[in-house]
Amino acid sequence: MPKLKNHSGTKKRFKLTASGLVRAQAAGKRHGMRKRPQKMKRNARGMMTLSKQDGIIITKNFIRVP
């Protein structure tokens, strides 16, 4: 059997916290910032923690932690 490999794109997009939660960049900040409210642009800075259900999907399907 070949080795199972981690999904390379997922390794670059998501990080795991020490408690096992998944952190990701906020969506909707690639283009069209002029028409977005200032509050949305401010809240979308940096990384955000995904919900527990989304984190389970990411870790189960893409990030294979030994």
Automatic annotation (TrEMBL):
Record InterPro entries: Ribosomal_bL35, Ribosomal_bL35-like, Ribosomal_bL35_sf
Enumerate the UniProt keywords alphabetically. Answer: Ribonucleoprotein, Ribosomal protein
Q: Name one GO biological process term.
A: translation
Where do the segments described as Disordered lie?
1-51
Q: Quote the SUPFAM superfamilies the UniProt record gives.
A: L35p-like (SSF143034)
What family name appears in the similarity comment? Belongs to the bacterial ribosomal protein bL35 family.
Query: What protein name applies here?
Result: Large ribosomal subunit protein bL35
**What is the taxonomic lineage of the source species?**
Bacteria, Pseudomonadati, Pseudomonadota, Alphaproteobacteria, Rhodospirillales
